[in-house]
Amino acid sequence: HSTFEQIMAPGGAVDVLQRCKEEGLIGHLGVAGGPIPLMIQYVNTGVFEAAISHNRYTLLNISASPLWDACMQRGVAAVNAAPYGSGILAKGTSKYPRYAYQNVEGDLLARAQRLEAICARYNVPLAAAALQFSLRDPRIVSTIVGMSRPERLEQTIALAKHPMPEEIWAEFAAVRPSTEDPEVDRYL
Known about the structure:
Blueprint: H1 4-8, H2 13-22, E1 30-32, H3 36-43, E2 50-54, H4 65-74, E3 77-81, H5 88-91, E4 98-99, E5 102-103, H6 106-122, H7 126-135, E6 140-144, H8 151-161, H9 167-174
Parallel strand pairs: 1-2, 2-3, 3-6
Antiparallel strand pairs: 4-5
Helix pairs in contact: 3-4, 7-8
């Protein structure tokens, strides 16, 4: 809970972290979370080697896309977390109607249901499509998937390897993912 200016100021948090890196106490500096414009501001400082965003690059929301572009331009490792949108794209709309940890309704729920219908037509698990959406983007170097139990590791590997027909991606794009930050209210 601070400002960009305070965090980047001499003697501020980033200055201290840079000294820790110079002393060999830490290996790399990264930045995570927060609104996309703020994340881009941090990436553009040239200080960070990695940037993590969550719930902002999924089949339902691509608001992190400008961040991934900035990371690519700066040579910063782009790490996408929460490709399942906190669960709706893993469990489905009837079992977990929540996105970014909030209840969903209206347009967002309707778009999620359209994605489910597309997956059903192709006999593809929605979770496989959600995971592979992140894995197939060349700007993203790694994807973070939360694990609730050890057996989820094998399930996630199977989802990553699940065959996906190429034409499914055009159908997903037609569902029109949002470009609005799903967590913007948390930062007002």
